[in-house]
Design a protein that fits this description.
By secondary structure, this protein is an alpha/beta fold. It has nine helices and twelve strands. It folds into two domains: 5-96 and 289-306, NAD(P)-binding Rossmann-like Domain (Rossmann fold); 100-281, NAD(P)-binding Rossmann-like Domain (Rossmann fold), CATH 3.40.50. Helix 5 (150-161) links the parallel strand 6 (142-146) and strand 7. Bound molecules: NADPH dihydro-nicotinamide-adenine-dinucleotide phosphate (NDP) and oxalic acid.
């Protein structure tokens, strides 16, 4: 009997998610294994042993009775967790240096943008106004990172190397050199009361939905050269209460926001975020998953699994991430 089929299921839409490009990459790295791009009416569902997926619709994986592993082609598995019919096999998420480095670039870029007063400076340029403001050093600001997993810990280290005071918050206790770590509900207020720039790299779970809300914003620290604190969310849109963000920007509870993710994506044209002077917006591209890197990552994991080895980065379904 031949090797089980790897079924590729992509509901992306963005340039990075061109199904034919992903199929070509998987064909290159899968050797003699058949890679099938779904939907394919000629495919016998019983032949599918592995599924590599991005945003499958609820129920789309339920027909594969011989499935052994599901590979999510991104780091966040919230879309899969919402599928009650998801087959009960190991679910593997992406955790690779390529993706981590891309997210670190995004976080460093946006922390620097607010620290270096870029919104003010670009406005001055547009108005041909020569009006420098005092520029403080990185060490004058505390960056607080919510989520100290693969992505949060790497961003924390990069910001620390630039001279920022960096603190972090996670579910379980952590120790990271040079970074004061807080954890759990009991540690949240102490973390927020020191934070001038809040970076959110949490997964979206029932526990974290709308964690970025008005009450939380009011606890952030205003005693820095920035004055009103800033938030940066590259986790998931469901982590943020968008009405609360707009309200907080209006009454100066927040000074600015960098947002990469939204409750509804693509962001509707009617969203006030598009033209808000205090919002720096990107279209969920903080850290694209790269077809070259991720196809190799999946192929390596399958080879190890079939040789009797352990899968890496398996999602804990109870925790939801
Ligand atoms: P990890 O699973 O490695 O880390 C998640 C972190 O969040 C962990 O530190 C975890 O705590 C913490 N956490 C989870 N739940 C809670 C909670 N209830 N209270 C406190 N802390 C909590 O994930 P990654 O770092 O790889 O990715 C994080 C998220 O980034 C993804 O889930 C995805 O949504 C998003 N993402 C966005 C991208 C983009 O382009 N915008 C690209 C890639 C990812 P503990 O360590 O104790 O488990
Ligand atoms: C991811 C993402 O989860 O792209 O990897 O958001």
């Amino acid at each position: 009997m031949g090797k089980g089929v790897l079924a590729l299921l992509i509901n992306g839409g963005a340039e990075n998610w061109s199904p034919s490009r992903w199929k070509a990459r998987f064909d290159e790295v899968c050797g003699d294994r058949r890679v099938v791009l779904l939907p394919d009416p000629a495919l016998d569902p019983a032949d599918v042993h592995y599924a590599a997926v991005w945003k499958p619709k609820p129920g789309e994986l339920a027909t594969f009775g011989n499935l052994r592993v599901i590979f999510n082609l991104g780091a966040g598995v919230d879309a899969l967790m919402a599928d009650r019919s998801l087959p009960d096999v190991p679910l593997v998420r992406v955790a690779v240096d390529d993706l981590t480095d891309r997210m670190t670039e995004y976080v460093v870029l946006h922390v620097l943008l607010h620290h270096r007063q870029e919104l003010y400076l670009r406005e001055s340029q547009r108005e041909k106004r020569w009006a420098p403001k005092y520029q403080w050093a990185a060490g004058a600001l505390t960056v607080g990172i919510m989520g100290l997993g693969t992505l949060g810990a790497a961003s924390a280290r990069a910001l620390r190397a630039l001279g920022f005071r960096v603190i972090g918050w996670s579910r379980s206790e952590k120790q990271i050199d040079g970074i004061a770590c807080f954890h759990g509900a009991d540690g949240l207020d102490a973390f927020l009361r020191q934070t001038n720039i809040l970076v959110c790299l949490l997964p979206l779970t029932p526990d974290t939905r709308h964690v970025l809300n008005r009450d939380l914003f009011a606890k952030l620290n205003r005693e820095s050269p920035l004055g009103a604190p800033v938030i940066i969310n590259a986790g998931r849109g469901g982590l943020q209460n968008e009405a609360d963000i707009l309200h907080a920007l209006k009454d100066d509870t927040l000074g600015a926001a960098s947002l990469d993710v939204y409750e509804t994506e693509p962001l509707p044209a009617s969203s006030p975020f598009w033209s808000h002077p205090k919002v720096v917006l990107t279209p969920h591209n903080a850290a694209d998953t790269d077809a070259d890197e991720i196809s190799k990552y999946v192929a390596r994991q399958i080879a190890r699994f079939e040789a009797g080895g352990e899968l890496e980065n398996v999602v804990d379904r109870k925790r939801g991430y």
